[in-house]
Specification:
The structure is a homotetramer. By secondary structure, chain A is mainly alpha-helical. Helix content of chain A is 67%, strand content 0%.
Chain lengths: 218, 218, 218, 218
DNA sequence: TATGAATGAGACTTCATTCAT
DNA sequence: AATGAATGAAGTCTCATTCAT
């Protein structure tokens, strides 16, 4: 039964990789990429130094592979919903996106610390690869949604979809990064459900009161 | 004239310290804290390695002393004092804030790079101190403006001023951090004037088209 | 039939050893002894690392066992048996020797590379054993031929046969080692037939022109 | 007197480099390039590991710089003599060359062991650089001498100067390498003066007896 | 017997820091 | 106060060898 053995081995190997990456995230988050040592990571993964190199070619490879294993899977369900027909649909979907972002960031706060601090020292290729896996790039999908929504008349005709799609996650990320990553302390006395709801409404309807809404530009 | 000599010496010493710290910021920004070497910094400061240690006890000391010398310019107010009377006033003021934020981040890009790269080495207290020195966005003031605007009927009555005041700069910071600090690569093909203008409009009037603006909640 | 099985096993085992040693020579020649890894060798032999150790105790053992398997072909005689009667006979025989040397070195280039790369690791005894296994030049035989030729008046009476017999192959080996083993790059734009012919003529008739040939010493 | 200090420092630095290179040669010769450790070399040079890197960028750099410091200076005086007018002049000069080669090889026997074993793993550029410093390349000068001698009628008109110039050192190197480097034991019971003399005569007048010297080809 | 993951000693190299000049 | 060579701890990575399967 060599086939069975091969399958078992492959599974074991995948387990090991995950186990190592999880250890790497823990150590990177605690010490930063440069201060983390392979020994730390190996110890945290319950392996010896040399074994790490049976699974990853270098320390940088560890960094590069973290998002693939930890962040991407969490991102997949985002924005898989049907095309919205009413603005209420949009609101519901955006709320989902917002809650998704909140969830991901909270879940991966340790990783984001690693990510942010390590980003400047990655090679451009690695950087690109890294970023393409992050929530910000949900922006591209959101941009598509906005464009379709504009054609359907749900959104302002003079909206710049590219800018708006990138501004939206930023509204949330500020809280999230500050509270979860940078300061680890609350900035406003609200829970994230409230914040997400407010943010979505702000994005959709703006801050201006009804009577001050201008006629939109063509 | 030992007193004169002493004074001269003190002044010279202070100059040297500044000179070294400025070099340190340049190098930290370019290479990240951990990758920066004392030799880099000494070279950039026009001194030799050993001399650095006549002014600072260690590399960490350099990091700790940076903000005191470099963050002052960012303390200027972002908002003009006058209370807004029309929504157009608000739009103008927000545009000013937005452009202020853009300016500040671009101006302090190197410092932000240092901050970001040193993130995992900073204690929570140090992180807070750093962040408080960098009033990247004048959230408290903006919150006040929004509250006054709400009382004046310019803004939705159901707006959460605290959340909105913090969400607004986030809309811009995404672009700024990515383009100026983390990626050094444009995310959208617009200049910051356009981005700032769009962001302000998005904040004020939202994304939804006119006919989909809901009645605001009480 | 335990006896048959045992015999089969022994044969198989011997095959495996040979297979491994041949792989080792290939890899040693390509990478040098120290740079060769067991993994390289195992891969080249179509086995896995661990299996090598079922046949050889260590990497050094591989080195030690190589010649027994690979140097035999070089033992064939280089000189035909017949005694030369004219200087033309001698020239023909030397040409044969020269071409033999060329052939041998080219044939054993990989082994020579191994030998050369392993040089500093070999004990003087091992070095001698290796060299004696590689009768790269049939110095003793050539010495005998020269002595007989001297008695027959074909060679200068003042020739030192021992020195000459060892100098002759050296004339060729320079080209051969450089071109085939060390540099893998041509030193002169001639093929080996030309080089061999020239070398033989140089050996027999020297470089001086006819009118400058001295009277030979007694 | 900063100028004096600078000069002193430069001299000291050059001394250190030589000191390190000499240690490197010792260690490389004893252990081979790959088995030699920086610690060995540093210890042998009376320095600590890190200090080596103040003078050489890498272990390979050490290897590459050895011939420049140790072999080239010994080679310079070779073949600096006046143009030969008689065959006796040539014989005297070649004897000098031969004795020079003997001297160099004996002197640098340890280095040649390093050289030969390290050669295959050098980059092509380093190899080229390396070889250009070795006695074999005296061949180019010898080739020039031979060509001039041919024009002057001292040498056979049908001589191939390129081949002859490279064959000549080979006649000696065989002895030398075997006796000094590979076997470290005598092959023939002669001293090097005798060997050198015999070799030169063999090269100039060949092995054939007077009455068997052919008419040279045009 | 074959496999290949695990091991860990040991290599090269970097760099903050010290110190004699 | 300035220099920069020296130091050596510490880090990443390689690889021969072992061993459970």
């Amino acid at each position: 039964m060599p086939r069975v053995t091969a399958a078992v081995k492959a599974r074991l190997s995948e387990t090991r990789r995950t186990q190592i990456l999880e250890a790497a995230v823990r150590v990177f988050a605690r010490r930063g990429f440069d201060r983390a040592t392979i020994q730390d990571i190996a110890g945290s993964a319950g392996l010896s130094e040399g074994s790490i190199y049976n699974y990853f070619r270098s320390k940088e490879e560890l960094l590069v592979h973290i998002p693939q294993h930890l962040v991407r899977p969490a991102l997949e369900p985002l924005l898989e919903a049907a095309a919205p027909e009413t603005i209420a649909d949009v609101e519901r979907q955006l709320l989902q996106v917002a809650q998704g972002i909140v969830g991901r960031v909270k879940e991966n706060a340790w990783f984001l610390k690693v990510f942010v601090s390590a980003l400047p020292r990655l090679s451009p290729r690695a950087r690109e690869r890294y970023l393409s896996l992050l929530p910000l790039y949900a922006a591209e999908r959101l941009e598509g949604v906005l464009r379709r929504g504009m054609r359907a008349g749900l959104f302002r005709q003079d909206l710049d979809a590219a800018i708006a799609a990138r501004a939206f996650p930023g509204m949330l990320l500020i809280f999230l990064m500050m509270q979860e990553v940078l300061l680890e302390k609350k900035l406003v006395p609200h829970d994230y459900n409230t914040i997400a709801g407010e943010t979505v409404r702000l994005f959709l309807y703006g801050a201006a009161s009804r009577q001050h809404q201008p006629a939109h530009r063509p």
